[in-house]
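Side project, low priority. Logging it here so it doesn't get lost.
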Amino acid sequence: MTGPLRLTEEMSCGAARLRVDVYGGEPREHVLDDLNFLNYRLADVRISPEVTLAAPDIVWDQDGEKAVAYDGRTVRFTGAWPAGPIQKVVVAVLALRMEQVGLHPSHSAAVNYRGKTMLFLGGESNHGKSMGLIEAGRRGALQVASETTVISEDGRAVMGSVDTFLRKRTEGTERSDKAAPNKGVEKFWGEMPTWGFYTGQPNIDLVIVPAIDGNFDPATNELIPFERQFQFLHSLQNYFLTNELLAPGHVMPMVDDDELRRKRAVFVDRFCARPFFFIRAATPQVLLDEVDRIL
Protein backbone atom coordinates (compact mmCIF):
# COMPACT_ATOMS: atom_id res chain seq x y z
CA MET A 1 0.00 0.00 0.00
CA THR A 2 1.22 3.50 -0.78
CA GLY A 3 -0.46 5.30 2.11
CA PRO A 4 -1.50 4.80 5.73
CA LEU A 5 -4.59 2.87 6.74
CA ARG A 6 -7.36 5.46 6.95
CA LEU A 7 -10.41 3.35 7.74
CA THR A 8 -11.53 -0.20 8.43
CA GLU A 9 -15.29 -0.56 8.29
CA GLU A 10 -17.64 -3.53 8.44
CA MET A 11 -21.13 -3.71 6.92
CA SER A 12 -23.79 -6.33 7.46
CA CYS A 13 -27.01 -7.56 5.91
CA GLY A 14 -28.66 -10.19 8.07
CA ALA A 15 -25.94 -12.65 9.09
CA ALA A 16 -23.70 -11.67 6.15
CA ARG A 17 -20.75 -9.38 6.79
CA LEU A 18 -18.28 -7.50 4.62
CA ARG A 19 -15.11 -5.62 5.57
CA VAL A 20 -13.62 -2.68 3.66
CA ASP A 21 -10.12 -1.27 4.29
CA VAL A 22 -9.21 2.17 2.93
CA TYR A 23 -5.60 3.34 2.56
CA GLY A 24 -4.06 6.68 1.58
CA GLY A 25 -5.83 9.87 0.60
CA GLU A 26 -7.62 12.06 3.08
CA PRO A 27 -9.04 10.68 6.34
CA ARG A 28 -12.69 9.65 6.05
CA GLU A 29 -15.42 8.73 8.51
CA HIS A 30 -17.14 6.10 6.33
CA VAL A 31 -16.52 4.24 3.08
CA LEU A 32 -19.85 5.58 1.79
CA ASP A 33 -21.64 8.60 3.20
CA ASP A 34 -25.04 7.44 1.96
CA LEU A 35 -26.44 3.91 2.37
CA ASN A 36 -29.68 4.55 0.45
CA PHE A 37 -28.50 2.67 -2.65
CA LEU A 38 -27.27 -0.29 -0.59
CA ASN A 39 -30.60 -0.56 1.21
CA TYR A 40 -32.51 -0.19 -2.05
CA ARG A 41 -30.52 -3.05 -3.55
CA LEU A 42 -30.01 -5.33 -0.54
CA ALA A 43 -32.94 -4.51 1.79
CA ASP A 44 -31.22 -3.83 5.13
CA VAL A 45 -27.52 -2.91 5.13
CA ARG A 46 -26.01 -1.58 8.34
CA ILE A 47 -22.63 -0.33 9.49
CA SER A 48 -21.43 -2.61 12.26
CA PRO A 49 -20.43 -0.98 15.55
CA GLU A 50 -17.17 -2.96 15.53
CA VAL A 51 -15.04 -4.89 13.06
CA THR A 52 -15.19 -8.67 13.53
CA LEU A 53 -13.76 -10.04 10.27
CA ALA A 54 -10.08 -10.98 10.22
CA ALA A 55 -9.46 -9.95 6.60
CA PRO A 56 -10.92 -7.39 4.19
CA ASP A 57 -13.28 -8.25 1.34
CA ILE A 58 -12.60 -4.92 -0.40
CA VAL A 59 -9.38 -2.90 -0.24
CA TRP A 60 -9.26 0.66 -1.56
CA ASP A 61 -5.86 2.34 -1.94
CA GLN A 62 -6.80 5.92 -2.79
CA ASP A 63 -3.30 6.74 -4.06
CA GLY A 64 -1.90 5.61 -7.37
CA GLU A 65 -3.25 4.96 -10.85
CA LYS A 66 -6.94 4.14 -11.15
CA ALA A 67 -7.59 0.38 -11.38
CA VAL A 68 -9.81 -2.39 -10.04
CA ALA A 69 -9.12 -6.13 -9.80
CA TYR A 70 -10.29 -9.31 -8.04
CA ASP A 71 -7.97 -12.07 -6.86
CA GLY A 72 -10.62 -14.65 -6.00
CA ARG A 73 -11.05 -13.37 -2.43
CA THR A 74 -10.65 -9.59 -2.36
CA VAL A 75 -11.64 -6.76 -4.69
CA ARG A 76 -8.89 -4.14 -4.85
CA PHE A 77 -9.44 -0.55 -5.94
CA THR A 78 -6.56 1.83 -6.63
CA GLY A 79 -6.82 5.55 -7.25
CA ALA A 80 -9.58 8.13 -7.07
CA TRP A 81 -13.04 6.57 -7.47
CA PRO A 82 -16.42 8.23 -7.04
CA ALA A 83 -18.92 6.69 -4.64
CA GLY A 84 -21.07 5.07 -7.37
CA PRO A 85 -18.67 2.32 -8.51
CA ILE A 86 -17.59 1.65 -4.92
CA GLN A 87 -21.18 1.07 -3.80
CA LYS A 88 -21.85 -1.21 -6.79
CA VAL A 89 -18.94 -3.45 -5.79
CA VAL A 90 -20.05 -3.41 -2.16
CA VAL A 91 -23.46 -4.66 -3.31
CA ALA A 92 -21.95 -7.43 -5.47
CA VAL A 93 -19.54 -8.72 -2.84
CA LEU A 94 -22.03 -8.46 0.01
CA ALA A 95 -24.56 -10.36 -2.13
CA LEU A 96 -21.98 -13.15 -2.43
CA ARG A 97 -21.48 -13.17 1.34
CA MET A 98 -25.27 -13.33 1.75
CA GLU A 99 -25.40 -16.42 -0.46
CA GLN A 100 -22.79 -18.06 1.77
CA VAL A 101 -25.18 -17.79 4.75
CA GLY A 102 -28.24 -18.95 2.80
CA LEU A 103 -29.71 -15.56 1.81
CA HIS A 104 -30.49 -14.94 -1.85
CA PRO A 105 -31.15 -11.36 -3.04
CA SER A 106 -33.71 -11.48 -5.85
CA HIS A 107 -34.44 -8.58 -8.21
CA SER A 108 -38.15 -8.58 -7.46
CA ALA A 109 -40.99 -6.88 -5.65
CA ALA A 110 -43.14 -8.93 -3.28
CA VAL A 111 -46.63 -8.45 -1.89
CA ASN A 112 -49.07 -10.32 0.31
CA TYR A 113 -52.30 -10.18 -1.66
CA ARG A 114 -55.57 -12.01 -1.10
CA GLY A 115 -53.92 -14.35 1.38
CA LYS A 116 -50.92 -15.26 -0.78
CA THR A 117 -47.38 -13.91 -1.03
CA MET A 118 -46.13 -13.47 -4.57
CA LEU A 119 -43.11 -12.05 -6.32
CA PHE A 120 -43.28 -9.65 -9.23
CA LEU A 121 -40.01 -10.84 -10.77
CA GLY A 122 -37.67 -8.53 -12.66
CA GLY A 123 -36.49 -11.50 -14.72
CA GLU A 124 -34.80 -11.01 -18.08
CA SER A 125 -36.69 -7.90 -19.19
CA ASN A 126 -37.64 -6.10 -15.94
CA HIS A 127 -40.88 -4.65 -17.31
CA GLY A 128 -43.39 -4.10 -14.57
CA LYS A 129 -42.40 -5.29 -11.09
CA SER A 130 -42.71 -1.83 -9.49
CA MET A 131 -45.91 -1.03 -11.35
CA GLY A 132 -47.33 -4.38 -10.26
CA LEU A 133 -46.41 -3.62 -6.66
CA ILE A 134 -48.15 -0.24 -6.77
CA GLU A 135 -51.37 -1.54 -8.31
CA ALA A 136 -51.45 -4.48 -5.90
CA GLY A 137 -51.04 -2.02 -3.04
CA ARG A 138 -53.89 0.06 -4.41
CA ARG A 139 -56.07 -3.07 -4.27
CA GLY A 140 -55.24 -3.77 -0.64
CA ALA A 141 -51.99 -5.77 -0.81
CA LEU A 142 -49.33 -5.39 1.87
CA GLN A 143 -45.78 -4.75 0.68
CA VAL A 144 -43.15 -7.35 1.49
CA ALA A 145 -40.38 -5.90 -0.71
CA SER A 146 -39.90 -3.32 -3.46
CA GLU A 147 -36.66 -3.54 -5.48
CA THR A 148 -35.17 -6.58 -3.76
CA THR A 149 -36.64 -9.58 -2.00
CA VAL A 150 -34.13 -11.53 0.09
CA ILE A 151 -35.13 -15.22 -0.05
CA SER A 152 -34.05 -17.93 2.37
CA GLU A 153 -33.04 -21.45 1.38
CA ASP A 154 -36.53 -22.70 2.19
CA GLY A 155 -38.26 -20.12 -0.01
CA ARG A 156 -39.35 -17.47 2.49
CA ALA A 157 -39.12 -13.71 2.00
CA VAL A 158 -36.96 -12.87 5.03
CA MET A 159 -36.11 -9.25 4.13
CA GLY A 160 -37.25 -6.70 1.61
CA SER A 161 -36.27 -3.25 0.39
CA VAL A 162 -38.71 -0.49 1.35
CA ASP A 163 -38.42 2.35 -1.20
CA THR A 164 -40.43 1.80 -4.38
CA PHE A 165 -38.01 3.82 -6.52
CA LEU A 166 -34.38 4.92 -6.39
CA ARG A 167 -34.84 8.68 -6.42
CA LYS A 168 -31.21 9.77 -6.62
CA ARG A 169 -28.24 8.13 -8.32
CA THR A 170 -24.76 8.56 -6.90
CA GLU A 171 -21.91 10.18 -8.85
CA GLY A 172 -20.57 7.75 -11.41
CA THR A 173 -23.84 5.83 -11.84
CA GLU A 174 -26.11 8.45 -13.44
CA ARG A 175 -28.47 7.11 -16.13
CA SER A 176 -30.20 9.48 -18.57
CA ASP A 177 -32.07 6.50 -20.12
CA LYS A 178 -34.04 5.92 -16.91
CA ALA A 179 -37.32 7.84 -16.84
CA ALA A 180 -38.18 9.79 -13.71
CA PRO A 181 -40.06 7.35 -11.45
CA ASN A 182 -43.00 9.72 -10.93
CA LYS A 183 -43.83 9.69 -14.66
CA GLY A 184 -45.20 6.15 -14.60
CA VAL A 185 -47.18 6.96 -11.46
CA GLU A 186 -48.69 10.04 -13.11
CA LYS A 187 -49.58 8.07 -16.23
CA PHE A 188 -51.32 5.16 -14.52
CA TRP A 189 -52.66 6.59 -11.24
CA GLY A 190 -52.41 10.37 -11.28
CA GLU A 191 -50.84 10.34 -7.84
CA MET A 192 -49.05 7.71 -5.80
CA PRO A 193 -51.41 5.25 -4.06
CA THR A 194 -50.68 4.29 -0.46
CA TRP A 195 -50.55 0.85 1.14
CA GLY A 196 -49.38 -0.99 4.22
CA PHE A 197 -46.44 -3.27 4.97
CA TYR A 198 -46.45 -6.96 5.83
CA THR A 199 -44.88 -8.05 9.12
CA GLY A 200 -43.14 -11.41 9.15
CA GLN A 201 -41.25 -13.75 6.84
CA PRO A 202 -43.86 -15.32 4.57
CA ASN A 203 -43.42 -18.31 2.32
CA ILE A 204 -43.52 -17.28 -1.33
CA ASP A 205 -46.54 -18.95 -2.89
CA LEU A 206 -46.20 -17.98 -6.54
CA VAL A 207 -44.18 -15.84 -8.95
CA ILE A 208 -45.41 -13.43 -11.61
CA VAL A 209 -43.09 -12.38 -14.45
CA PRO A 210 -44.77 -9.20 -15.74
CA ALA A 211 -44.43 -7.56 -19.14
CA ILE A 212 -46.24 -4.22 -19.23
CA ASP A 213 -46.42 -2.43 -22.57
CA GLY A 214 -49.23 -0.28 -23.95
CA ASN A 215 -49.30 -2.38 -27.13
CA PHE A 216 -49.91 -5.73 -25.43
CA ASP A 217 -53.20 -7.60 -25.42
CA PRO A 218 -53.57 -9.40 -22.08
CA ALA A 219 -52.11 -12.91 -22.02
CA THR A 220 -51.25 -15.25 -19.16
CA ASN A 221 -49.10 -18.36 -19.46
CA GLU A 222 -47.84 -20.75 -16.80
CA LEU A 223 -44.12 -21.23 -17.38
CA ILE A 224 -42.44 -24.58 -17.96
CA PRO A 225 -39.51 -25.49 -15.66
CA PHE A 226 -36.83 -24.16 -18.03
CA GLU A 227 -38.57 -20.77 -18.35
CA ARG A 228 -39.06 -20.52 -14.59
CA GLN A 229 -35.40 -21.19 -13.87
CA PHE A 230 -34.21 -18.97 -16.73
CA GLN A 231 -36.16 -15.96 -15.42
CA PHE A 232 -35.39 -16.55 -11.75
CA LEU A 233 -31.65 -16.98 -12.36
CA HIS A 234 -31.67 -13.61 -14.13
CA SER A 235 -33.11 -12.03 -11.00
CA LEU A 236 -30.30 -13.52 -8.85
CA GLN A 237 -27.45 -12.75 -11.25
CA ASN A 238 -28.57 -9.11 -11.35
CA TYR A 239 -26.47 -8.37 -8.26
CA PHE A 240 -23.12 -9.49 -9.65
CA LEU A 241 -22.95 -6.95 -12.50
CA THR A 242 -21.50 -9.40 -15.00
CA ASN A 243 -23.01 -7.42 -17.88
CA GLU A 244 -22.28 -3.90 -16.62
CA LEU A 245 -19.61 -1.29 -17.06
CA LEU A 246 -18.31 -0.25 -13.66
CA ALA A 247 -16.86 3.05 -14.89
CA PRO A 248 -15.51 4.42 -18.20
CA GLY A 249 -12.67 2.12 -19.22
CA HIS A 250 -13.23 -0.30 -16.32
CA VAL A 251 -15.46 -3.36 -16.28
CA MET A 252 -16.82 -5.00 -13.16
CA PRO A 253 -14.40 -7.72 -11.98
CA MET A 254 -15.76 -11.25 -12.35
CA VAL A 255 -16.53 -12.13 -8.73
CA ASP A 256 -18.66 -15.18 -9.62
CA ASP A 257 -17.26 -18.66 -10.33
CA ASP A 258 -18.43 -22.11 -11.46
CA GLU A 259 -18.90 -23.53 -7.96
CA LEU A 260 -21.02 -20.58 -6.85
CA ARG A 261 -23.09 -20.82 -10.01
CA ARG A 262 -23.60 -24.56 -9.48
CA LYS A 263 -24.90 -23.98 -5.95
CA ARG A 264 -27.11 -21.16 -7.21
CA ALA A 265 -28.57 -23.45 -9.86
CA VAL A 266 -29.49 -26.02 -7.19
CA PHE A 267 -31.31 -23.33 -5.21
CA VAL A 268 -33.04 -22.10 -8.38
CA ASP A 269 -34.24 -25.61 -9.21
CA ARG A 270 -35.68 -26.05 -5.72
CA PHE A 271 -37.32 -22.61 -5.57
CA CYS A 272 -38.89 -22.92 -9.01
CA ALA A 273 -41.07 -25.86 -7.99
CA ARG A 274 -43.72 -23.25 -7.07
CA PRO A 275 -46.08 -21.82 -9.75
CA PHE A 276 -44.66 -19.23 -12.17
CA PHE A 277 -46.81 -17.18 -14.55
CA PHE A 278 -45.78 -14.84 -17.37
CA ILE A 279 -48.36 -12.06 -17.83
CA ARG A 280 -48.48 -9.59 -20.71
CA ALA A 281 -50.62 -6.50 -20.11
CA ALA A 282 -51.02 -2.98 -21.42
CA THR A 283 -51.29 -1.42 -17.93
CA PRO A 284 -50.71 -2.35 -14.28
CA GLN A 285 -54.46 -2.46 -13.83
CA VAL A 286 -54.83 -5.13 -16.53
CA LEU A 287 -51.84 -7.00 -15.04
CA LEU A 288 -53.61 -7.27 -11.68
CA ASP A 289 -56.86 -8.25 -13.37
CA GLU A 290 -54.96 -11.22 -14.79
CA VAL A 291 -53.43 -11.97 -11.37
CA ASP A 292 -56.93 -11.96 -9.87
CA ARG A 293 -57.98 -14.60 -12.42
CA ILE A 294 -55.06 -16.82 -11.36
CA LEU A 295 -55.88 -16.46 -7.68
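Brief comment: The mean pLDDT is 92.
Revisit when time allows.
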